[in-house]
Amino acid sequence: MPAEEEACRVRLRAMGIAFEERPAKQNTEVGCSMPYPLSVSDLAKGIELTPEAELNCTTAEAIARFTADVVQPAATNIMGTKLSGVIHASAYVCRPRHNGGKLSEHAFGNALDIASFTFTDGSRIDVAPQPDEKQGKFLDHVREAACGPFKTVLGPGSDPDHETHLHLDLAPRRNGSTFCQ
User: Fold this and answer.
1) pLDDT in tens, 53-63
2) Per-chain mean pLDDT for the chain
């Protein structure tokens, strides 16, 4: 395993992220590849990721840092409670993008689709086109803050395929730019 992969795992452990190593994923026919996958079950102590998500280490670290630095504070400040979980709709999947062109970043373990957030008070926010005002404020904050740490951010209103989740990925872009809708 390359040194950067080892170093990434050390950082994940230091952050309290629960994960297990998985066998390499590769489909040479299609072009999907994830040489050092992780199955992540907790983004921090007390914050579950359900179902477990197969991601590459860089993406797992970006999601965990974003959760700690943005989502958890937003839960406290906007929702008045703590985050207890993130429910995802998709992590690693060997497939093309929704328009059938290039491979999706999911095909490299480089993306996570967040469908819902759960909180310690028992409440839940589903990503949806027209949430109530307080939930909308939370979702808008999370979505706007994701532009920067993630290179692609899509959600309700961007296209029909992203009406019920936030798509976050680390696709490399020219000049380090981001694509956020």
Assistant:
1) 999 999 999 99
2) 93
Pair type for strands 25-27 and 166-169? unpaired
Region of 157 (left: φ > 0; alpha: ψ -120 to 50; beta: rest) is left
Instruction: Please give the model's pTM, rounded to 2 decimal places.
Output: 0.93
Considering just the CA atoms, what is the radius of gyration of the chain in Å? 16
Q: How many residues does the chain have?
A: 181
Using an 8 Å Cβ cutoff, are 87 and 50 in contact? yes
Grouping H, G, I as helix, E, B as strand and the rest as coil, residue 119 is strand
Mapped onto helix, strand or coil, the DSSP state of residue 44 is: strand
Token output for 1:
């395993």
Residues 160-173 have pLDDT tens digits of 888 899 999 998 87
Backbone angles phi, psi at 135, to 5 degrees: -65, -40
CA 110/CA 59 separation, integer angstroms: 6
Tell me how far apart the alpha carbons of residues 176 and 174 are, in angstroms, rounded to a whole number.
5
The per-residue pLDDT for range 49-98, each reduced to its tens digit, is 999 999 999 999 999 999 999 999 999 999 999 999 999 999 999 987 76
